[in-house]
Amino acid sequence: MRYLAVLFLAFFCGLYAKTQPLRILHIVPFGEQNLKITFNRDVSPSDAKQSKLSNSRSILDINAILTLERKNYIFSDNTRVQIGQQNKRVVRIVMQAPKILNYDLRFSGTSLYIGFNPKKTIKKSSKSPTRVVQQTPSKKKRVMIDAGHGGKDCGAIGVLKVCEKVITLSVAKLLEAELKRRGYLVLMTRTADRYLGLRERTNLANDKHADLFVSIHANSVPKQSMKTANGVETYFLSTARSERARRVAEKENKDNIEVMNYFSKQTFLNSINTHRLIASNKLAIDIQGGILNALRPNYSGIMDGGVREGPFWVLAGALMPSVLIEIGYLSHPQEGRRINHKDYQRLLAKGIADGIVAYFKKNP
């Protein structure tokens, strides 16, 4: 009975959260031409309606309540954005460019990202059907892939009793092959079952002058949550902003207490280059989207855990944009089994590679 009561409580709590009015809590411009809008709960394309008024002017209406004052932003190319409460239930975002307005929307958990004037990389030909052009970097980009854990550090143990370190290495090798096929120069922190300290991993990336650092992990939760906790999550370095982020960070950080104590000083986190954090955020968004787009056409029930911030010390020493990917929950009865299958791992690798390609197209 107690177990059923907990299930009912969880169900009604989730139902209650979904029925709460959508509220805009924060609006933050970042980079040269980007906005991040944070809501009180998950937001999706169904909550928004786009209307094009002209080639230079568009409106985005969101079924939400603005808890802030009316906002006005002017970006470097004179693109203007006005955000205000249109009526009791709708927030209106008016976007206007000097000439032609180009923008894209990314929905990720409780956040909506608006990027203005995204670079166009694929052209349509009137003579032949549209096709996706495979990117070959004009200058080979260096990507450091970090397979989480290893050696004496098993990491989490999944439902099939396989160590996290085994799965992360398998996905890392598949990602290595996928990126090499696309013309990237790929570096690996480990190619076998060996132990590396947290500082060693980013030191390797720094010494090899890597352009990106991508650390691969798999999540796990206690038995009482095994059947409900699932989904893909991508993290970039920051002070933890949620209990969930803190919990995941504690699990991944516990391998080296000395390093954790060193990096956990608030002064260190505050000193990290802001440009690098913004770039890492962009990379996380592209990789998260790439993974979901690769998995969802082939598997049902793929949950979007979102792009999140957390104090992952394996990322703290990197001098380049860096992310940590939790490819799923080893503890989940279904997802934990999927993660052990090569076909699923190949799609994960493809999705991560797609995200990296997307990032470099917009940030050459």
Report on the structure:
- This protein has 364 residues and is α/β, with parallel strands linked by helices.
- The protein has two domains: 18-116, Immunoglobulin-like (Sandwich); 142-362, 3-Layer(aba) Sandwich (Aminopeptidase), CATH 3.40.630.
- The chain has helices at 2-19, 164-181, 198-207, 243-253, 257-263, 266-271, 274-295, 313-316, 335-338, 342-362; strands spanning 23-30, 34-39, 48-54, 57-62, 65-66, 71-74, 80-85, 91-96, 103-108, 111-116, 142-147, 185-188, 212-219, 232-237, 304-310, 322-329.
- Helix 2 (164-181) crosses helix 10 and helix 7 (274-295) crosses helix 10.
- It is globular, with a radius of gyration of 21 Å.
- The N and C termini lie far apart (57 Å).
- The relative contact order is 0.13.
List keywords for this structure.
alpha/beta, Immunoglobulin-like, Aminopeptidase, 6-stranded mixed sheet, 5-stranded mixed sheet, 16 strands, 33% helix, 26% strand, globular
Stated plainly, the CATH topology of the largest domain is called: Aminopeptidase
* Structural domains: how many: 2
Termini gap: 57 Å
Largest sheet: 6 strands, mixed
Quickly count the helices.
10
Helix content: 25-40%
Considering the protein shown, what is the CATH homologous superfamily of the largest domain?
Zn-dependent exopeptidases
Q: pLDDT average, as an integer?
A: 82
Structural class: alpha/beta
Assigned CATH class of the largest domain: Alpha Beta
Strand count: 16
Strand order of the largest sheet: 12-11-13-16-14-15
Q: What is the string of SSEs from the N terminus onward?
A: HEEEEEEEEEEEHEHEEHHHHEHEHH
